[in-house]
Amino acid sequence: MKRVVGSYHPHEEEPYMNQRQLDYFESQLKQWRTQLQQEAHDATREMREENVRAAELVEQSLSEYQRRMTLISHDRKSRLLAQINAALLRIKEGSYGYCVETGEEIGLRRLLAYPAAFLLVEVQEAREHRSRSFANGVG
């Protein structure tokens, strides 16, 4: 696969999901994944170090709060990593850039804003609406 060179940026005047665009998004996703993996590694290391240092009650409470926030962040990053890996798989399979529910083009703007997107905005909003309705006991 040919690597993206220089300052290439996908634009809507070119064919949708051509090889340059696919290479661009693959590169973006891999960089994002590497960054998230490094952040997760750093957070895990910091939590281990905090366990050794937390001695007093107030310090322990603060440490526990920070640990919870770190775990929440870690969980969010884990879900994001799964989405990134799924997007990379879709690039390999040839389905990247298309909604997994409708098969329609997701669009460059959405992918540039969120390269791991796998749904049309309308489909994502409908899912979120159903989820909120279910959580509130409606529907």
TrEMBL record:
Protein keywords: Coiled coil, Metal-binding, Zinc, Zinc-finger
Residue ranges covered by zinc fingers (dksA C4-type): 99-123
GO molecular function: zinc ion binding
Residue span, Zinc finger DksA/TraR C4-type domain: 94-129
Domain DnaK suppressor protein DksA N-terminal: 21-91
Alphabetized Pfam families for the sequence: DksA_N, zf-dskA_traR
Chain segments annotated as coiled-coil in the UniProt record: 33-60
Protein name stated in the entry: Transcriptional regulators, TraR/DksA family
Organism of derivation: Desulfuromonas acetoxidans (strain DSM 684 / 11070)
